[in-house]
Amino acid sequence: MVQDEVLSLFPIPVLVCQYPDSFDDEWDFIRKLDYCDVKLRTKNTFILEHPKLSKIREFIDIKIKKFTREIMLSYNKLDITQSWVNKSGKGASHHDHIHSNSIVSGVWYPHAIDNMPPINFYNKIDKNISLQYGSRNNFNSSTFFIPPMKGDLILFPSDLSHGVPENKSDEDRYSLSFNTWVKGDLGEIDSLNYLPSSFHHTNS
Length: 204
Description:
9 strands; four-stranded antiparallel sheet
């Protein structure tokens, strides 16, 4: 008898990995950074270029390469563009958003406690009909949340909507975020979507 087959079409990859070494010095450096009063982020928005975070940067670069080559099966190289640290005190939250002008984005947690708010990811496809569900899975869920764990790195496509609910703890929530862009050409000539890294238009 032929078995029924369930296909998972167009899944969205999210990679979670743990930093393998201690990072007490890096965490001490992050806590002492200058933060904007209103936007709750570091004044330096290229923070991963600082020598104090070189080991963290190297780890992230390795995982970006894994995400690109082994999961997306792309030979493009992605470089980190901007990077910053978010600091959210009690009562603070982060609205649902995507990261524009980026391909893969990520967040690394230098610190976390049990009751810190998670990062919430939202389904791109809006469902206009809501059925009654006995339980949730990848096919019927509209939200997926990942609690922050100390040392965790989360990589995801930059156009995947995400946000952070209210921090109800008495401790600040820290997260190091970053964006990436392609080093080199985009697209394929045969697919008529080729975009060279240096584009020159010639009138004829």
